[in-house]
Amino acid sequence: QVQLVESGGGLVQPGGSLRLSCAASGSAFSLYRMGWYRQAPGKQRELVAVITSAHVTNYADSVKGRFTISRDNANNTVYLEMSNLKPEDTAVYYCNAARLLLRLNYWGQGTQVTVSS
Asked: Is residue 26 pLDDT above 90, yes or no?
């Protein structure tokens, strides 16, 4: 079992920056594919960024060049650094941990990010 706790959300102005953290508890953190997803009101949840156990990253086109995902295996933590934030980035951001071949999939409770003047 893996427990995920997100933090770092809040209210920022357009063009601002924010860093989200996801602290994981459980075994074999380094083997999980870690990701950030977001869900805005009235919209479906979408993938924002993913980082594999080999530290390979992938991003949604809408955030490329602005967001950076990273992981610190020593501290069982994954980060999402967000810059040049836009109002359309407003959403609840969820941390995800997955072992696809084992059909394991875990979610955090989410943290609210609001980008507004």
From this structure: no
Q: Hey, which bits of 1-117 come out as E strands?
A: 3-7, 10-12, 18-25, 33-39, 46-51, 57-59, 67-72, 77-82, 91-99, 104-107, 111-115
* Diameter of the chain measured on Cα atoms: 44
Block residue for tokens 């959300």:
9
Q: Which residues contact 36 (CB under 8 A, 6 or more apart)?
A: 20, 22, 47, 48, 49, 50, 69, 78, 80, 93, 94, 95, 96
Quick: pLDDT tens for 43-63.
999 999 999 999 999 999 999
Q: How confident is the model at residue 27 (pLDDT cuts 50, 70, 90)?
A: confident
Q: Read out DSSP for 8-32?
A: --EEE-TT--EEEEEEEESS-GGGS
